[in-house]
Amino acid sequence: MSQLLPGYSPSFKKPSEILRLSRKRSRSETSKPRGSPLFSPGDVAKRVPGLRPFSPGPNKGVGVKRRNPFASLENTVCSPVKRRAEAAPDCGPFSPAASPEKPVVTSEGPKGSLTFPADWSLKTRLLFTSSNTFSWADHLKAQEEAQGFVMHCRATTVNLPQSIQEPKTSTDLRCAFQQSLVYWVHPSLPWIQLFPRIGMDRKMAGKNIPWSNDEALQQVLMSEWALSFTSLYSLLRAKLCPYFYVCTYQFTVLFRAAGIEFSLPLVEDPPKRQKNSQGDMETEEENDVENEGNEALEESDDDESFSWLEEMGVEDKIKKPDSISIKLRKEKNEVKLDHKPESVVLVKGTNTFTLLNFLINCKSVVAASGPQAGLPPTLLSPISFRGATMQTLKARSVNVKAQVRSGYKDQFSLEITGPIMPHTLHSLTLLLQSAQRGSFLAGLYTHDPSSVFNTAIHSQSAKEGMFTDLANCGLHPSTVEQLSQVAQLGKSSLRHLEMNDYTYTWRL
């Protein structure tokens, strides 16, 4: 009788033996009736000694697949990533997956609006897309281009039909398109990008700046700029210019044909104490006296805070902060408003001329060093003025194949680049609603520092008078009416505009 090794099981079977028995059993089961099952996981365990029976757990139904313990949340069928991918619509040109810039969406406009809010921010780029071609905007003839310039200079109003059947053969449409691309700028230096000016030092580095070390040439440039600036302001006062921009290297000014008092519209008023009784008033007076005492104590502390230097005999070797620095430290809450929307200043009334003189004589409007040293601020206007140069925005149409679920479809786009002012955006939408049959999308790329110009400064009652006064400012009447709306965007600006069936929706 052979001796068994410790731990040896007589029922142990090699895996190959188990598979052989399973195949043998399955062949024998084929002779069973069609309605009977061939085998179950438990049959193999019963017929093969030593095989542990399979237990599917709480879900004991046949055919239920167990969850893979090594699967990650991203590659499972029920993962949030896959559910979003399956539920997401086709990626349009402005979807987060297709757009090269991060979309900023904070709110959405009402459905079915016949117009969109006035946006006083400057744009650097517009990207229109549509299912209809933009070929009508390509390769303007010399006569059409010349006619467009004449129409702009004469402020010709073009009223197009609601829908144009053959946009490419419409001379009125093509001339009006050229007319809408025109803007006026001073100074004009073709080798330097004059907008935007804020944050442009890196792009302007290495450019030829012959006036940087020539004070006489700088004086000539500033003198010519002052004449152009004064000319624009005179046109504005005469209601012949609706608005214009002054773009310096560190701030931007918007002049609008409306009006000037000094205020900070986005800074909240300090909370006022309630005076409900005589006792409260007495308490308030006591608090005021206490505050004044504290201020006097702070001033004395400032004077005495450096007395220890004298005691040590080093007061002459240590530079004390001047009174201005001390005042700025005390007024740190006001200083904190710099470079924020709350630092916007609104000037209204009859003192505008004082602001004009201030900007002409203010040294901070011109950089003292760096690539923009000695370069006067950029003046942008929708109409001509003394010393201005006529320029046109760059337009380019592209036809691409966009991928959709069923394959590919034609996608047409029109790109406009340059300093895009508010009237240009509205004029282009008037043309596109006729040429694209009331359906298009627009991505609007804003010069962010100018978004704060959408702060409301007019009441509803001032709208009608403003529209009447600007009847001869050179813009289309419907554009003037749109820009005369009471501001609705606050500190934001339009980022996405859509027209569908001749009605607008938008996002900020």
TrEMBL record:
Region named Disordered? 1-66, 89-110, 269-304
Residue ranges with Acidic residues bias = 281-304
Its Gene Ontology biological processes?
Answer: nuclear DNA replication
Query: Record keywords: Nucleus included?
Result: yes
Chief subcellular location: nucleus
Q: Family, per the entry?
A: Belongs to the DONSON family.
Q: What is this protein called?
A: Protein downstream neighbor of Son
> To which species is this protein native?
Hymenochirus boettgeri (Congo dwarf clawed frog)
